Recover the amino acids of this structure.
């Protein structure tokens, strides 16, 4: 059974549309060290979902530890690729899921750089569910953490209130829910978001991208008509024009507009991550910020 809850209000009452399919998985970053299950079930089933903890995707260690959550599967498989390649660089199978959480230390020494990462289930329907992201290791990680600070800084993070499900033809599905705060001393202008499709689905399944702010108003869009191709080489820029006074916090939802013809993409996953933002301020966040995973269906 599918239920839709909508919460409306000012920033103190976060604006989100939460789509829940039989089960809910909360990202690891919001969970304390508890043995309680974070994947509620119905009497007969649990919706399969996999998440990577964004905070584990940046490391100074050559042998980083990657963590996340998984529902509906007892084991997961992790695969690493050098950025922009399709040849497997490292693989770890049968990673045990305990209390809906998984954890794996990379045994191979990784050179400084960026790696594409995929985590999938290992048996049955779980093999069709994939979580994707980018792992930043070593020097680049240190540089990103210690970059020069300006008087104006936008702190950007994911709000763990979005859950994937089935993305149907012609639907608008929320792929990223962000909280952005100006923690600097000057006014900042947010000009847009750079996003990347990390799932197994072709970018042609998406014909548009939109940004909605906490008041529910549209703040920007690209494409939206059948035949539009907002992604170029796997990346898309979603424009906005939002002003932040010092200390101001706002929330934004990025939505993907699905093609009316998704027959060629059925069963494939959509996972759109925010890789960076265009702003007059110094951005601070755990980039890339992974989004909700959607499976394309009729």
């Amino acid at each position: 059974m599918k239920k839709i809850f909508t919460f409306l209000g000012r920033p103190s009452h976060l604006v989100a549309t939460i789509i829940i399919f039989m089960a809910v998985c909360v990202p690891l970053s919001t969970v304390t060290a508890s043995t309680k299950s974070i994947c509620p079930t119905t009497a007969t089933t649990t919706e399969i979902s996999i998440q990577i903890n964004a905070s584990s995707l940046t490391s100074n260690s050559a042998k980083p530890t990657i963590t996340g959550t998984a529902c509906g599967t007892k084991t997961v498989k992790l695969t690493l690729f050098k950025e922009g390649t399709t040849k497997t660089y490292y693989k770890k199978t049968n990673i045990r899921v305990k209390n809906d959480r998984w954890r794996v230390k990379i045994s191979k020494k990784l050179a400084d750089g960026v790696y594409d990462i995929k985590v999938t289930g290992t048996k049955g329907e779980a093999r069709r569910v994939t979580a994707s992201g980018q792992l930043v290791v070593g020097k680049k990680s240190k540089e990103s953490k210690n970059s020069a600070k300006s008087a104006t800084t936008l702190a950007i993070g994911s709000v763990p209130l979005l859950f994937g499900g089935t993305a149907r033809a012609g639907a608008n599905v929320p792929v990223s829910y962000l909280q952005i705060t100006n923690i600097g001393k000057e006014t900042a202008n947010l000009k847009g978001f750079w996003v990347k499709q990390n799932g197994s689905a072709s970018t042609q399944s998406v014909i548009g991208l939109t940004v909605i702010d906490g008041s529910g108003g549209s703040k920007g869009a690209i494409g939206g008509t059948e035949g539009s191709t907002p992604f170029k080489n796997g990346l898309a820029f979603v424009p906005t024009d939002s002003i932040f006074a010092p200390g101001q916090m706002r929330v934004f939802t990025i939505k993907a507009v699905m093609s009316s013809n998704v027959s060629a993409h059925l069963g494939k996953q959509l996972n759109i991550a925010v890789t960076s933002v265009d702003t007059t301020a110094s951005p601070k966040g755990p980039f890339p910020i992974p989004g909700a995973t959607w499976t394309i269906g009729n």
Q: What stands out?
A: The first helix runs from residue 139 to 145. The domain at 153-297 is CATH 2.60.40 (Immunoglobulin-like).
